[in-house]
């Protein structure tokens, strides 16, 4: 609290009268009371701040690291109007029962998930579950930026589509299910931070969660095509207006993102409004009751719990479009860049990773026959993927850290969709006597794009799009 400022004593009951529907909106931080009414239009997090209207803001404040900067505290301090009356404090603090927990409706998670953060939940698929073509719902990686919205019934849900002329049309989930053709697409979702821990270890420290190889998953998504809904809402999808360049998506928890309108309406782009995942109702963590699926693009554009779609001239202005999901040069830092100069990540670059290494014969002598081998070997498996629907045409494996190479077998799998939206699983067996200390994998897509050798070449302070060769150490067993 700034020195010399005279403030009023405010009762908790009075603060509660200044909620989201009040003329003046108040919040509590610590034991201080702030009138943030005039700040709301300029708040970078949009309507998130209204979740704490008339209540304690601490639970929401702590979610975003940007709030820890002194200049942000200084902005808030301008709106100080009072402190909580000591009569309402317990041991000098606002009582716990007066603090709203935004995560109270989060679901229980499978204990096999590798938790990187709990509030909000961010969790990796365990490595032994990445060997399947379809990633089970229960262990599909979870990337939440905020809390998980809860809909007791689908009767509580409506999707609003707004066109460039301001016209709006609403849809219930039942209308989407019954009025539009049903489509299924098999597609990968990959977080932009997948393998960030490898960039940290192979180059320099970056910002963000230290994901391993499990911030990725492949699933069958079922729903309706976005282009069909936009057309029904009145958008001329075959002759787009000049002032419609983006499809903006807003989630029920206030997350926002957008994609180019050409992708949104492309018949072969397979963009869905999905209500099923692997033949089942969407899990709460994965967008129930409705989410966007943008195949071939970074998962940050596949907005969960989508409640609003806008056909607009400009991109989403959310921080997740304008700041978080961008890349800069290896020489740049967060203090010397212009966020507006870098485009938001959309299509993903080529990627591959090891998911399993096993000694043969070990318990699997029969696998030697599968590989056509009659000597002890090391079995290696993994995934490869490229954005934009580009097919993986080759996976190269080295047993001596990149000096010599062999080609892995590409496993054929059945998938749905116009393009190669799924990952490509691969396998290979290397004779044990050829194995060095490190195994290395790199993939090549149909545009002959290949992964870079080093992390340093595409290091960026956000740690996004880690795609350098994946290396794993081999410890030769004692005989």
Report the end-to-end length measured between terminal Cα atoms: 69 Å
DSSP strand count: 25
Q: What spatial order of strands do you see in the largest sheet?
A: 9-8-17-12-13
Helix-residue proportion: 10-25%
Radius of gyration: 25 Å
Query: How many individual helices?
Result: 9
Mean pLDDT: 92
The shape, in one word, is globular
Low-confidence stretches: none
Tell me the β content.
Answer: 25-35%
Oligomer type: single chain
Strand-pairing-aware structural class? alpha+beta
Largest sheet: 5 strands, mixed
Give a concise summary.
This protein has 479 residues and is α+β, with helices and mostly antiparallel strands. It has helices at 12-16, 58-61, 70-77, 173-179, 196-202, 226-233, 261-265, 319-324, 365-370, and strands at residues 8-10, 26-29, 32-35, 80-84, 114-118, 121-124, 142-143, 159-162, 168-171, 183-190, 216-225, 246-251, 256-260, 272-277, 280-281, 291-293, 306-312, 351-360, 377-385, 392-398, 406-407, 409-410, 424-431, 438-445, 470-473.
């Amino acid at each position: 609290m700034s020195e010399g400022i005279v403030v009023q004593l405010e009762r908790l009951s009075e603060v509660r009268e200044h909620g989201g529907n009040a003329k003046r909106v108040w919040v509590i931080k610590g034991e201080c009371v702030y009138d943030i009414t005039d700040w709301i239009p300029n708040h970078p997090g949009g309507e998130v701040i209204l979740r704490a209207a008339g209540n304690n803001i601490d639970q929401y404040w702590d979610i975003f690291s940007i709030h820890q900067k002194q200049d942000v505290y200084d902005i808030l301090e301008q709106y100080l109007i009072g402190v909580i009356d000591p009569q309402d404090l317990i041991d000098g603090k606002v009582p716990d029962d007066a603090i709203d927990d935004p995560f109270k409706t989060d679901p229980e998670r499978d204990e096999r998930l590798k938790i990187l953060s709990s509030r909000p939940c961010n969790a990796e698929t365990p490595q032994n579950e990445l060997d399947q073509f379809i990633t089970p719902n229960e262990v599909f990686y979870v990337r939440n930026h905020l809390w998980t919205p809860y809909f007791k019934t689908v009767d509580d849900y409506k999707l609003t589509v707004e066109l460039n002329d301001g016209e709006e049309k609403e849809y219930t989930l039942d209308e989407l299910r019954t009025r539009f053709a049903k489509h299924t697409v098999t597609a990968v979702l990959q977080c932009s931070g997948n393998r960030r821990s490898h960039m940290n270890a192979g180059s320099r420290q970056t910002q963000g969660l230290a994901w391993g190889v499990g911030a990725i998953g492949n699933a069958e998504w079922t729903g309706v095509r976005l282009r069909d809904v936009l057309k029904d809402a009145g958008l001329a999808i075959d002759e787009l207006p000049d002032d419609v360049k983006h499809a903006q998506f807003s989630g029920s928890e206030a997350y926002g993102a957008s994609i180019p309108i050409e992708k949104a309406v492309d018949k072969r782009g397979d963009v869905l409004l999905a209500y099923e995942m692997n033949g089942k109702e969407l899990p709460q963590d994965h967008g129930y009751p409705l989410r966007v699926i943008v195949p071939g693009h970074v998962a940050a554009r596949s907005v969960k719990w989508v409640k609003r779609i806008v056909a607009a001239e400009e991109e989403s202005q959310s921080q997740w479009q304008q700041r978080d999901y961008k890349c800069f040069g290896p020489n740049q830092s967060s203090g010397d860049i212009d966020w507006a100069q870098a485009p938001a990540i959309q299509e993903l670059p080529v990627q591959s990773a090891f998911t399993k290494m096993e000694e043969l014969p070990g318990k699997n002598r029969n696998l030697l026959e599968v590989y056509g081998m009659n000597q002890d070997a090391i079995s290696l498996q993994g995934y490869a993927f490229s954005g934009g629907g580009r097919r993986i045409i080759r996976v190269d494996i080295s047993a001596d850290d990149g000096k010599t190479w062999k080609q892995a077998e590409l496993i054929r799998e059945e998938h749905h969709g116009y393009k190669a939206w799924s990952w490509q699983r691969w396998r290979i067996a290397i004779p044990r006597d050829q194995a060095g200390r490190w195994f290395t994998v790199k993939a090549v897509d149909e545009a002959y794009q290949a992964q870079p050798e080093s992390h340093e070449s595409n290091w960026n302070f956000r740690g996004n799009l880690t795609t350098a060769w994946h290396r794993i150490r081999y410890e030769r067993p004692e005989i």
